[in-house]
Amino acid sequence: MFPGFVSIYKDDNGYINLYFYPGLSDDVKDIYWPLELTNEYEYIKNIREDKSVIYQFINKKIKKIKCKLISHNNDYKTITLEI
């Protein structure tokens, strides 16, 4: 098992990036459903081979983002990430 997680960082160009990894259960299935972001901020979505996703936000002035991680068994946790 490899747990899923979400993190936030500012890249060298000043863009805010949200990194999401859905995790991997013992039976080799994703732990979390894909994130559903609101249309509050415009972003570029980059899906990677390991099923992780990087969301690069166009607005460089974002200070915090709230994420709701929902597992496949409908457990959830809300995380607020701040830059």
Q: Which secondary structure elements does this structure contain, and how are they paired or packed?
A:
Blueprint: E1 5-10, E2 16-21, E3 43-47, E4 53-57, E5 64-70, E6 76-82
Antiparallel strand pairs: 1-2, 2-4, 3-4, 5-6
Report on this model:
The chain is mostly beta strands and 83 residues long. It has one domain (5-82). It has no helices and six strands. The strands form two sheets. Strands 1-2-4-3 form a four-stranded antiparallel beta sheet, with no helix packed on it. A two-stranded antiparallel ribbon has the order 5-6.
Question: What keyword list fits this structure?
Answer:
83 residues; mainly beta; 4-stranded antiparallel β-sheet; two-stranded antiparallel sheet; 6 strands
Classify the secondary structure makeup into a structural class. Answer: mainly beta
Beta-strand residue fraction:
35-45%
Order of helices and strands: EEEEEE
**Could you estimate the helical fraction of the residues in percent?**
under 10%
Extract low-pLDDT stretches. Answer: none
Quote the average pLDDT: 92
Backbone shape: globular
Overall domain count: 1
Largest sheet composition: 4 strands, antiparallel
Kindly provide the radius of gyration, computed on alpha-carbon positions and rounded to a whole number of angstroms. Answer: 13 Å
Q: How many DSSP-defined strands?
A: 6
Note the total helix count.
0
Give the neighbour order of strands across the main sheet: 1-2-4-3
Rounded to the nearest angstrom, the distance between the terminal CA atoms is: 29 Å
